[in-house]
User: Which sequence fits this backbone?
């Protein structure tokens, strides 16, 4: 079974060259006016930008060709929790590594981010292996 993903080039083929050029202009203007959603963008064009060379049809064509404006979606889209959790596990250290590095020197420190969140950080000098573990906050 073959499925194809519509691309901008495929979507642009539905329109004339002039309609595509006007859609590009509408898309650029949408970015200039701080990336409002297409619905609010149409209202702004009607209410405030009477002399703009963009029409509602151009805005609709731009959304059809380029999809929804990514800038207008950022900050408005709600992040949903992921149902698939990754389980962390440990594997035994291979015998040849244990043989080569029987003595390991660790550098240990506690790192704070914004003076709020504490992390326990270790780094082995010979192996250049770093670990970071968040520490529970005291109440």
Assistant:
């Amino acid at each position: 079974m073959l499925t194809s993903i519509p691309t901008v080039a495929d979507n642009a083929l539905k329109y004339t060259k002039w309609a595509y050029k006007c859609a590009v202009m509408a898309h650029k203007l949408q970015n200039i006016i701080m990336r409002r959603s297409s619905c609010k963008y149409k209202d702004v064009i009607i209410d405030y930008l009477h002399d703009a060379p963009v029409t509602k049809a151009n805005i609709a064509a731009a959304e059809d060709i380029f999809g929804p404006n990514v800038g207008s979606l950022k900050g408005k889209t709600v992040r949903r929790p992921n149902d698939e959790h990754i389980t962390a596990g440990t594997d035994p250290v291979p015998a040849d590594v244990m043989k080569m590095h029987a003595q390991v020197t660790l550098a240990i420190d506690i790192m704070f981010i914004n003076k709020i969140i504490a992390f326990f950080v270790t780094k082995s000098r010979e192996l250049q292996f770093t670990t970071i573990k968040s520490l529970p906050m005291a109440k």
Observations:
- The radius of gyration is 27 Å.
- The longest strand covers residues 106-113.
- The first helix runs from residue 8 to 12.
- Residues 8-73 form one domain.
